[in-house]
């Protein structure tokens, strides 16, 4: 997308009222370490560690809406249990106006995932799939009617857990018709005609195949399946999400359009469809065309799969992702301290070991390259803190640096052993080190442990400090001396 256009769209989305309706889940992630196999059965033993809970399904849609700047409301059903209390607390923390209807006949739908080293070992579901009825269904419909008055879009998230009954669908349709709001549906159902003349239905490729009985692997197959789906159902448009193959949009009377981006580094696809629905619906609610909204949904889903668990995406992350996509691969490694923290969070959630080093790197020479390559062998991802020009002048004196910050950063980022370059203006990189919380801190062989900034800090959280081998005869000072003699 054009960056100014993206910025303008994000500004238009801020404060836009949107209602998320449907099945609500509590997604719980239990982490830990697996170091041995049970003697009782060939199963791994998980030593329990950190436990986190997140809003799932329609709750995750609403959470993503709020994170992207919308005035988000949520309507759905929960049980009368501890999980329901967690859902309420998480909704309040996310800034949602939530109408959560209690139903004593069912538990709050809960998915518990047991994870070690970024790998899911087991998922345990607690749910009742029977449709809501009676007073509970009536209360949910009344909540929809009460919340829909201001909404510019109603996002219906149907996971087949019982909240989205025919009467609830009809209530959403009538609310959209009476207020002029858009109705956008994400559904696991076999038949899309259940949703009537919805503005957009958003299945994934497998769900489109399930609904049409047709293959959906190649572009031509997708186009045929979309044509069949539009013939079979009264919805106005269908946007199919296709994982690494992007998204494909079919509108009545128009050719199918395919949207693609370079595949991101995927850590976890859980909840990516919810994020896409939120971004699509919010963009449309703010006045975007279907094509522009589809592009924005693709950017958002590409960001969220780089995070662990059922995650959310923020507006500034969409800008950062689009900027990175338009830069050369090396330049995309150059980040602010905030971008570094986001990357570290993703890497650490994937069980990766983080390394950090720093320097001026004024004239890159074989000694630098050797030490950076060695540093990378001690970690899975290497961050280089890079002194700004002002910081170099304070440390080295007038006439330095020889090369400006941009040139030094681009050259460093071009090295395959370097994963991120984070400039800093302070006399030392201590603030970056605190933010990155590295597992290993590395400096060149001309340092001793006592002189390494941040060494005690890294050791305090259980990290290690390593000194790379020093290669005689290579230094920026010696290089400049030779240039001066020449």
Overview of the structural elements:
The chain is of the alpha/beta class and 486 residues long. 39% of the residues lie in helices and 24% in strands. The protein has 17 helices and 18 strands. The strands form 4 sheets. Strands 5-4-1-8-9-10 form a 6-stranded parallel β-sheet, sandwiched between helices. A 5-stranded parallel β-sheet has the order 16-15-14-17-18, with helices on both faces. A hairpin with a 5-residue loop joins strand 11 and strand 12. The radius of gyration is 26 Å and the shape is globular. The relative contact order is 0.09. The model has no long low-confidence stretch (mean pLDDT 91).
Task: Give a brief outline of the structure.
The protein has 486 residues and is an alpha/beta fold. Helices cover 39% and strands 24% of the residues.
Distance between the termini: 49 Å
* Rg from alpha-carbon coordinates: 26 Å
Largest sheet: 6 strands, parallel
Summing up helix and strand content along with how strands pair, one would put the structural category as alpha/beta
State the low-pLDDT regions, or none: none
What is the mean pLDDT? Answer: 91
Count of alpha and pi helical runs: 17
Task: Tell me the overall shape.
Answer: globular
Tell me the number of strands. Answer: 18
What strand order characterises the main sheet? 5-4-1-8-9-10
Binned strand content: 15-25%
Helix content: 25-40%
Outline the fold blueprint.
Blueprint: H1 3-13, E1 17-22, E2 24-37, E3 44-57, H2 58-67, E4 71-78, H3 82-93, E5 97-102, E6 109-116, E7 119-126, H4 134-147, E8 153-158, H5 166-179, E9 182-187, E10 200-201, H6 205-212, H7 219-232, E11 237-241, E12 247-251, E13 257-259, H8 272-285, H9 290-304, H10 315-326, H11 337-349, E14 354-359, H12 366-377, E15 381-387, H13 389-396, H14 405-413, E16 420-424, H15 430-436, E17 440-443, H16 455-460, E18 464-467, H17 476-485
Parallel strand pairs: 1-4, 1-8, 2-6, 4-5, 8-9, 9-10, 14-15, 14-17, 15-16, 17-18
Antiparallel strand pairs: 2-3, 6-7, 11-12, 12-13
Helix pairs in contact: 1-10, 2-8, 4-5, 6-7, 8-9, 9-10
């Amino acid at each position: 997308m054009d960056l100014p256009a993206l910025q303008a769209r994000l500004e238009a989305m801020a404060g836009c009222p949107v209602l998320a309706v449907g099945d609500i889940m509590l997604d719980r992630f239990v982490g830990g370490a697996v170091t041995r196999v049970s003697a009782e059965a060939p199963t791994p033993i998980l030593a329990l560690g950190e436990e986190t809970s997140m809003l799932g399904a329609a709750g995750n849609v609403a959470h993503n809406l709020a994170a992207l700047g919308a005035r988000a409301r949520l309507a759905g059903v929960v049980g009368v249990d501890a999980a329901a209390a967690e859902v309420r607390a998480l909704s309040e923390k996310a800034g949602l106006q939530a109408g959560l209807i209690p139903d004593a006949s069912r538990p709050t739908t809960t998915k518990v995932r047991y994870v070690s080293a970024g790998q899911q070992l087991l998922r345990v579901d607690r749910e009742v799939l029977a449709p809501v009825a009676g007073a509970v269904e009536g209360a949910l419909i009344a909540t929809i009617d009460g919340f829909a008055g201001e909404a510019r879009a109603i996002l219906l998230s149907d996971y087949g857990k019982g909240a989205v009954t025919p009467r609830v669908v009809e209530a959403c349709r009538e609310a959209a018709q009476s207020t002029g709001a858009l109705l956008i549906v994400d559904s696991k159902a076999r038949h899309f005609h259940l949703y009537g003349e919805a503005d957009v239905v958003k299945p994934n490729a497998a769900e489109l195949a399930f609904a049409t009985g047709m293959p959906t692997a190649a572009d031509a197959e997708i186009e045929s399946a979309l044509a069949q789906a539009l013939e079979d159902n009264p919805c106005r448009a269908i946007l199919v999400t296709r994982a690494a193959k992007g998204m494909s949009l079919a509108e009545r009377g128009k050719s199918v359009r395919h949207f693609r981006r370079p595949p991101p580094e995927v850590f976890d696809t859980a909840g990516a469809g919810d994020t896409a629905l939120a971004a699509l619906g919010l963009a449309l609610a703010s006045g975007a065309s279907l094509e522009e909204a589809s592009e924005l949904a693709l950017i958002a889903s590409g960001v969220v799969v780089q995070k662990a668990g059922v995650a959310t995406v923020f507006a500034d992350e969409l800008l950062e992702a689009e900027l990175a996509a338009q830069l050369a691969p090396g330049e995309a490694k150059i980040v602010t301290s905030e971008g570094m923290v986001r990357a570290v969070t993703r890497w650490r959630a994937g069980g990766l070991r983080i390394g950090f080093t720093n320097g001026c790197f004024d004239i890159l020479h074989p000694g630098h390259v050797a030490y950076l390559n060695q540093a990378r062998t001690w970690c899975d991802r290497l961050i280089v803190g890079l002194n700004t020009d002002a910081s170099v002048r304070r440390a080295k004196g007038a006439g330095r640096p020889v090369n400006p910050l941009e040139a030094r950063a681009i050259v460093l980022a071009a090295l395959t052993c370097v994963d991120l370059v984070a400039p800093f203006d302070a006399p030392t990189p201590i603030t970056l080190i605190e933010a990155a919380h590295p597992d290993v801190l590395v400096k060149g062989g001309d340092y001793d442990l006592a002189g390494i900034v941040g060494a005690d800090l890294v050791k305090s959280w259980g990290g290690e400090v390593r000194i790379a081998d020093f290669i005689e005869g290579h230094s920026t000072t010696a290089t400049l001396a030779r240039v001066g003699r020449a």
